[in-house]
Write a structure and sequence with these properties.
The chain has five helices and no strands. The protein has 121 residues and is mainly α.
Amino acid sequence: MAASVLPNYPSGKWEWHYEHGLFVKALAQIGAATGEDSFEQFVHNWVDHFVTPEGDIRTYAAKEYNLDQINPGKLLFPFYRRGGSERYAKAIKLLYNQLQHQPRTESGGFWHKKIYPFQMW
């Protein structure tokens, strides 16, 4: 089933967002479990679609303080560990910086988004 999705998930529909990050992480895990290179290549293409050579993340808006934009960042760590490319390290630092400044509730929990003050999801 997962293999049938790869050719039908065109880059024009990709988003740097929670749901897409979750789905692509699942594809990465399927690739790791099965050894199918097509999954790894898809995940790499997906990540590189967003992470610029300078380490910026296309469509990512730090000023939104939106935790949904953090989840896809989990995909960056394996690529950084394997290849050591600084572009991935810089992208990780962007997301880390957001978490350092993410608005919090009085008890210290992260707001889900800046537009939803004091809400935790």
